[in-house]
Amino acid sequence: MIGRYGHREGAVGYVGVVGPTRMDYHRTIGAVRYVGTLMSDVVRALDG
Questions:
Q1: What would the pLDDT profile of 1-48 be if each residue is shown by its tens digit?
Q2: Domain ranges, residue 38
Q3: What is the CA radius of gyration of the chain?
């Protein structure tokens, strides 16, 4: 699973999870989205 973070005028990156076939996908998708949102906030704050 991969999620994108950043914004159009600034840095862009990706956060991902590699795990077993039987992992809890519902929980993992939520975690990836949450971390992506946090990282986007950090990028916006650093870009000023």
A1: 788 888 777 678 999 999 898 999 999 999 999 999 999 998 888 876
A2: 2-47
A3: 12
Three-state secondary structure call for residue 39:
helix
Q: How far apart are CA 35 and CA 8, in angstroms?
A: 18
What pTM does this model have? 0.77
> Taken in order 28, 16, 45, 7, is the CA torsion positive or negative?
negative
Question: What total number of domains does the chain contain?
Answer: 1
Under 8 Å between Cβ of 15 and 2: yes
Q: Please state, in angstroms and rounded to a whole number, the distance separating the CA atoms of residues 48 and 45.
A: 5
Q: What gap in Å lies between CA 37 and CA 4, rounded to an integer?
A: 9
